[in-house]
Amino acid sequence: MKLLRLKLLLGILLLPLAALATDSDFNGRWRLDAEQSSALDGWSTMDLCIEINGSEVTLQHDMRWRSTRVTETNVVNTRESVNLSNYFRVEQRHMAVYSPKKSVTPVTAGWLDNERTLRLEALVPVEVSQGDATIRIYSEYRLEEGGKKLTLIELHSTRNRPLIYIFRKLSADDTSRP
Amino acid sequence: MVRSLYLSLFCLLSVGSFLCSVGATPAKEAWVMHFDLDWKVASGLPEKAMLISLQGLANRDEAQLYIVHPPDFQWEITEPLYDFYKRKHGVSYTELSTADEALDQFKSSTKGYVVWDKTIGATLNVAFTIAGLEDAVVVSEELIPLVEKHGLQKIDDLRGRYTGQSDAEIYGDAIDRYWAQCNRDKIMLMGGHRGRTMMPGMADWGVRERMFFHDLSADPEEADELILNRRLLTDLNTGAIIFGWHPYGKDTEEQSTMLLSMYGLKMEGLHNLPNLSYNCQFGFTPGFKFTNNHHVALDAKLVAEEKVYIAFVQSDSIGIGVWTKPGRGKLPFAWQVTMNWTAFSPAALEYFHESATPNDYFIGGLSGPGYMYPNNIPADRFPVLMREAEKLMGVLDEHVMEIMDNSVADGNVGNADLFEETVDAYYKAFPNVIGFINGYGPARTRDLRDGRPMLSYDYYIDPKRPRDAVRDDLNELIALNSKRPYFLLVHVRESNDVNSLVEIVDNLEGPVEVVALDQFLKLAASNKTYKTRFRQADDPEHFKGYEF
Questions:
Q1: Cα–Cα distance measured from residue B535 to residue B405, given in angstroms and rounded to the nearest whole number
Q2: CB of A109 within 8 A of CB of A90?
């Protein structure tokens, strides 16, 4: 009974935060500004579609390589760690680094800077020529004031320099794809 | 000993076959034209097409006309090779500055002209087919007065014949009319650039050899064209060669190469490779023998240290690569040789060998005695083709075979792996190589048998990728493959420059050593830190292939 009350209280306290996130400027379709970003490799263009529903954040990657289109989605939760099969990373496709067929990627997420920054930390299993390995990827999705620009900073445990992707928000009636 | 006698005999037969095909020593007096880079249908193409058809006819019985292209043409070697012919074969050239001069010089080689329709690209291919069969030059209508000025008569006129017809209808008609008379050992897939720019640089060879020209699609989505394409492939003689290149925008290189491989045929490209009608008539200079820059003996045993070993390979045919650019020789580099050039362009191979630095190492490929995808070669044709490849590697003094199968890849990304039975077949077919390398983009086929590794590319250097990003990618691979030694095989796309690679190598992290490919494979044989893997049935496939 005591536990139930505690849960209710916690729910009431978190409700405004969840509602705030649902109306977030993060929501919508974002298009990569390739000129300002780290170079993609094996991808020509990228859109990022973000949808926040309570503590659940859906990150849909709409990728294009020549005539090939790939859409992959990661759903993370800012309240709890999730284990994602088929976790999608914006990989450098000219490297022999593959996703193992049966693998699970633990991902933690959270809000920072008054919900202006979404933080993700993922332990991504990969297959390389010597066998299995793991890349720890720390990502911050930083929303610029005005809500028109999104900066994704991605730091790999296996890279000494971050990958930085800049996105511009598309208007709600823009249904174009990359 | 038996093997070396066999190879010597093969060399003699090869040279003999050149002489037989020529019937005489190549001419010491010849003519040269210099082309510009304008291949637009609306401007430069029509005259070039006419001159290239004329070249094929002029060179039919003896080597008379050579074309030099600007240094930034895809095939950069035409000028160096021109110098080579003068220097090593003693050829004296007279410059022909205009089409008028060329027609004046060689009009006796032609019996007339055939008119193609500039608004229907496929008619140029039909015209080239007729040109080979009827000894004609191809002209668009504005060139008719020029050829008639030289007394040439109209043999055929395609204007209006194919108006409103699809490519399938046009080629269907051309097959009915001409295929029975065409060469069945060679066919010209004159694809490549289409639309406003066309680049039929290889047409001289097709005209000389009376080939059927087409640019039919290999895409199953274009079933009407695919049916005709397959009919032509079916009709070819066993062991035939498809010259040219797949048509851009109609199908993909992967589809086209997969299709011809399924028939046990091989590809020799590209569509714009110039001067084969001339080059084919020269053998090697007297006393010339291929001597590769081996760094280890075939039976050598090396021991790898605890470091990262890197080997660089360029496989897009050395004639279109960085060979003529500054920086070559600063790093050990392996170059995949187009082995069939022993028959079609021996002087080009001799030129490459004579200008090689100690850091340049030649390897065989691609997949066999021509460009083909081995996962798709019929089992009964595989040993025959690989015997041919092994002989060519013997002539060229090559100890490493490069394999590529992109049939289910997506350009230079995706699945480029070999089935285990394909790997088995290579080990069986090439008992005397140091090892094999596989891929184009990255791949993960790896094995080690009898001290001979098969390794795939761990990295492909896209020439457009910023150099600092290439450095970071390589450093990430080094971090992920943390056991030492780590064997990092890198494919260098042809338009990269070597100087930028030197800088990248200087900024890699860890105990890194760049070694020649033969050393690399011997070192990889000494400590297998890589996992054995073959293509698996549930690996991703971009193209689902063909149904027989």
A1: 11
A2: no
Query: Residues B315, B317, B323, CA angle at the centre, nearest 5°?
Result: 95
| pLDDT score of B17 | 42
Contact of B441 with chain A, judged by CB distance below 8 Å, is answered with yes
Q: Does A164 touch chain B (CB under 8 A)?
A: no
Q: Do B469 and A41 touch (CB under 8 A)?
A: yes
What number is the ipTM of this complex? 0.90
pLDDT in tens, B498-527: 888 999 999 999 899 999 999 999 999 999
Which residues of chain A lie closer than 8 angstroms to B486, CB-CB? 129-130
Give start-end residues of each CATH 3.20.20.490 domain in chain B: 311-526
B476 touches chain A (CB under 8 A): yes
Residue of A nearest to B409 (CA): A68
| Residue A138 located in a structural domain | yes
Which chain B residues have a beta carbon less than 8 Å from that of A65?
Answer: 410-411, 413
Give the pLDDT confidence of B132-178 residue by residue, as tens digits.
999 999 999 999 999 999 999 999 999 999 999 999 999 999 999 99
**Nearest-angstrom CA–CA distance, A5 and A22:** 25
Q: Does B444 touch chain A (CB under 8 A)?
A: yes
CATH of the domain at A24: 2.40.128.20
CA distance B480 to chain A (A): 6
Residue A176 domain-assigned?
A: no
Kindly state whether residue A177 falls inside one of the protein's structural domains. no
Confidence (pLDDT) at B21: 42
Give the neighbor-by-neighbor strand order of the sheet with B112-115.
B136-139, B112-115, B154-157
- Non-local (6+) Cβ contacts of A91 within 8 A are A42, A97
CB proximity under 8 Å: A 88-127 to B: 92-98, 101, 126-127
Closest-CA residue of B relative to A161 is: B472
Q: Is the pTM of this model over 0.80?
A: yes
Q: Would you say residue A129 lies in a domain? A: yes
Residues spanned by the domain of A21 = 2-169
* CATH topology (fold) of B311-526: TIM Barrel (3.20.20)
B26 DSSP 8-state letter: P
Instruction: Please name the residues in contact with A158: beta carbons below 8 A apart, sequence gap of 6 or more.
Output: A135, B475, B476, B479, B480
The total number of structural domains that make up chain A: 1
Element (H, E) at B191: strand B186-192
